[in-house]
Write a structure and sequence with these properties.
With about 625 residues, the protein is an alpha/beta fold. It has 16 helices and 24 strands. It has an 8-stranded parallel beta sheet, with no helix packed on it. The chain is globular, with a radius of gyration of 29 Å. The N terminus is likely disordered.
Length: about 625
């Protein structure tokens, strides 16, 4: 539990915890506590005692507030001291001289670095911030400039050391726009976790992401680079990564937050709706607004770029939305709005739109030629019906399209995707049973979408001609940059050649995760063991497969593997599934045999299968009696 604000546990939660934890030993961590209400803590203490856990259970509380320490009545307190000189240097060294750093680790830089570390006084955040700052500095003069900065002069206590380190990192950010982006992060509440993608889109809406002339970078790429710099300098902190190693959530340390708020100029105006009726002149310059619709939309805000509507009671967007001509970012995902008024199609500068309950798009939605990110939650299913996106292909700037339902309705055929050349991130395509043949599928131009990270292909569960699914899948070959691939309800008996090849060019050469679900008629499992980056394989519901052959490992035998040795290992070692961490085989009722790699008598190769495997789950495969050798 991070950033604890309140201490009253509902009775229902206590009862549930009692059911789960009664007589069991548990560890509860309350991180970064600031609440000073002794009465609330007394109530919570009684609730925790009522859980009935083992006497060996422990509760750990972290805080920077001395009052909280006294209120807790802890059985043991530990005042965390500063890092030793050795630990401080080790932390600094890992960051400043880390992989890809600009500096060469010379005796001169080591000497300067040790002096800088000494000035950090053993404060971890200060060491991290300075290490991240020097990561991109290769010249000895630049290091000396940091060492001799006047910012260090007034430091005496830990708080000042941290602030000075933060100030140095902030001052040395290479661009004014990068400082402005960091300042904009204070739109978050202190301690809040935000999504990287969303913040980059907000920066973009404020005009802070401008690729240099002649650059092939998109604004989103500039934003990603900015994020990398802010993470490296510890001005922002990584909160969560996805299965592909991408940072998807972040937070900002309280001390950094306070510093940035203090030094940032007033470029962001946030007013609650109750103040909008006062006629303040500052509303004319308002660029970001978070409100409910109790007082209607503030049309006086001529310069508004970002609008959040936060009110679950709101079911309709006012037609006056069309008058906010400069609006670039609209978030109505925390409302109950299911339809958009036609005037919204007049927002020609709109770049990002976030929704949660959309049932259909308005006519002339294609007018939004600058729309880059259409974010719709819940896979577009409202009341059991899919949200169709007619003529979505007109939005040629679109980069984010979370899903697309194929339909025979006008403007909803799969060829609409063929016009969207800039799609990136994740894409789910549903109702592929509505695609007639390979020629029609090819029109989606999936193989040209080089920026897709993940692709999901879904058919429905109704019985149909198996040859149609086979033909359609041939035309949906993805680009080799793909990292994640999911298929569901495929009715064909065989797979296309692009899924079966083990020689170059490999379509799946960068694949990290594959999920195959409900292939009721398919009698093949694609070869996967030769893929160097694959770490998750889930095969669920392949009812017609009775044998997993040696092809699954990427080769028919060890000699074939030795000749290609794609794992890059030296010597005679043969490795199949070198990076795989999770393998799930589930609901394969006719699976009888799982063959291992065959090794000829003349072969001297060492066979390694699943060297990195952490999770193996074989379930609902009643006829399978043994696993292959080496598993």
């Amino acid at each position: 539990m991070t950033g604890v604000q309140t201490c009253a546990l509902p009775i229902s939660i206590v009862r549930k915890l009692n059911e789960v934890l009664k007589t069991k030993r548990f560890l509860l961590v309350l991180d970064d506590v600031w609440n000073e209400d002794a009465e609330k803590w007394d109530r919570m203490r009684k609730c925790l005692r009522g859980i009935g856990g083992s006497d060996e259970s422990r509760i750990i509380v972290t805080t920077r507030n001395e009052t909280v320490v006294s209120i807790m009545q802890a059985s043991f307190t530990c005042q965390l001291g500063t890092l030793s000189a050795g630990d401080s240097w080790e932390l600094f060294e890992k960051i400043a001289f880390g992989h890809g750093c600009a500096a060469v680790k010379t005796p001169e830089l080591i000497n300067i670095g040790r002096k800088i570390v000494a000035k950090c006084g053993g404060v971890p955040l200060a060491v991290k911030a300075i290490g991240g700052l020097l990561y991109s500095k290769k010249d000895e003069r630049e290091w000396s400039k940091i060492e001799n900065s006047e910012t260090w002069a007034t430091m005496e206590e830990a708080g000042r050391r941290v602030r000075s380190a933060i100030k140095l990192s902030y001052d040395h950010l290479p661009l004014l726009s990068l400082k402005q982006c960091l300042s904009y992060c204070t739109i978050m509440r202190k301690g809040e976790v935000a999504t990287v993608e969303n913040m980059i889109q907000l920066w973009m809406a404020q005009g802070l992401l401008n690729p240099s002339k002649g650059s092939h970078l998109e604004m989103e790429d500039v934003g990603s680079n900015y994020m990398s710099i802010l993470f490296r300098t510890s001005l922002l902190q990584v909160s969560e990564k996805d299965g592909f190693g991408r940072t998807i959530k972040f937070t900002i340390h309280d001390l950094v937050y306070d510093f940035v708020q203090e030094v940032a100029k007033e470029s962001i105006f946030l007013f609650p709706s109750s103040e909008l009726i006062t006629g303040r002149e500052s509303l004319l310059k308002l660029r970001t607004l978070i409100l409910n619709l109790a007082h209607g939309l503030p049309i006086v805000c001529k310069s508004l770029r970002v609008l959040f509507l936060v009110d679950e009671e709101v079911k309709e967007l006012p037609a006056t939305i069309g008058k906010l001509k400069l609006l670039r970012y609209l978030d109505i995902s925390r409302t109950s709005i299911t339809e958009l008024p036609n005037p919204i199609t007049q927002l020609y500068n709109l770049q990002t739109m976030r929704l949660s309950n959309l049932q259909q798009l308005p006519k002339n939605f294609g007018n939004l030629v600058n729309l880059r990110h259409l974010c719709i939650e819940k896979d577009g299913i409202i009341n059991g019906k899919p949200c169709l996106l007619p003529d979505i292909g007109q939005l040629s700037s679109l980069q984010t399209l979370p899903f697309f339902y194929v339909s025979q309705d006008k403007g909803c055929q799969i060829d609409q995707l063929g016009h969207l050349h800039n799609l990136r991130g994740d894409l789910k395509i549903f109702d592929l049973q509505n695609v007639s043949n390979q020629e029609e599928a090819i029109k989606a131009k999936i193989s040209t979408k080089i920026n897709l990270d993940s692709l999901e292909l879904h058919w429905d569960t109704r019985t149909r001609d198996e040859s149609t699914d086979e033909d359609v899948l041939k035309g949906l070959e993805p680009h080799p940059n793909l990292k994640g691939f999911t298929m569901e309800n495929f009715m064909g008996r065989s797979l296309p050649s692009w899924m079966l090849t083990t020689s170059h060019p490999l379509v799946f050469r960068n694949l990290e995760k594959i999920v195959l679900r409900n292939f009721n008629k398919c009698q093949q499992i694609p070869p996967l063991g030769h893929l160097p980056h694959l770490n998750i394989v889930n095969i669920i519901g392949m009812k017609s497969v009775n044998c997993i052959g040696t092809d699954f490992f990427g080769w028919k035998n060890v000699d074939d593997a030795s000749s290609s040795n794609p794992s890059g290992l030296a010597g005679d070692a043969v490795v199949s599934f070198p990076a795989l961490k999770e393998l799930i085989l589930e609901y394969m009722p006719d699976l009888i045999e799982w063959s291992g790699l065959m090794c000829h008598d003349s072969s001297h190769s060492v066979v390694k299968i699943f060297p990195s495997l952490e999770i193996l789950k074989v379930e609902l495969c009643p006829k399978l009696v043994s696993l292959p050798d080496g598993v």
